[in-house]
Specification:
This protein is of the alpha/beta class. The chain has a single domain, classed as Alanine racemase (TIM Barrel). The chain is built from seven helices and six strands; from the N terminus they run αβαβαβαβαβαβα. A six-stranded parallel beta sheet has the order 1-2-3-4-5-6. Helix 2 packs across helix 3. The longest helix is centred in the last third of the chain and has 18 residues. The radius of gyration is 16 Å and the shape is globular.
């Protein structure tokens, strides 16, 4: 969030910014004001907080629900069964619009290793559409190393920052 707050004002005004990455509930007010979409809603509690902050800002917030399809302990996101349990409650929040799902599969040197995860997330999106009775237009999955496979499995949004800008330097730890 700090990086976004510093860099967004320096960029042309016509850019549309998406929040990707874990969002803490105490940062929701800033996220709602800075971003056009939040791609990393990973809990009902977070969705409720975003809804509250969007209400205060008198705006509707498009969101993607983050799925941890591979069950990696190091990643945030809904387990698929948990998402299905909470979907109707999230959809009932008046200031949120669910636009689809987002996922980051485990990294592997062979992009084909990500295909089963991408397929599982696409199938989960289809189940969500059946439950909601409406299409979800976006499936955000795939990064520089595996975006071709993600597109083949239905991705509508890919993240290719490394291909465009190179690898980011490691984050510095505050000791």
């Amino acid at each position: 969030m700090q990086e976004a707050k510093a860099k967004i004002p320096l960029c042309p005004g016509r850019l549309r910014w998406h929040m990707i990455g874990h969002l803490q509930s105490n940062k929701c007010r800033e996220a709602v004001s800075l971003f056009e979409m939040i791609q990393s809603v990973d809990s009902l509690h977070l969705a409720e907080e975003i809804n509250k902050r969007a209400e205060q800002a008198a705006k509707t917030m498009p969101v993607l629900l983050e799925v941890n399809a591979a069950g990696e302990a190091s990643k945030f996101g809904y387990r698929p069964e948990q998402l299905l349990e909470e979907l109707i409650r999230i959809n009932a929040l008046p200031r949120l619009e669910i636009h689809g799902l987002m996922a980051v599969p485990p990294w592997a040197p062979d992009p084909e290793k990500a295909r089963p995860v991408f397929r599982q997330v696409r199938e989960l999106k289809e189940r969500c559409e059946q439950i909601l009775g409406a299409p979800l237009p976006h499936l955000s999955m795939g990064m520089t190393d595996d975006f071709e496979v993600a597109i083949e499995e239905g991705a509508t949004i890919i993240r290719v920052g490394t291909a465009l800008f190179g690898a980011r330097p490691p984050l510095k730890r505050a000791d």
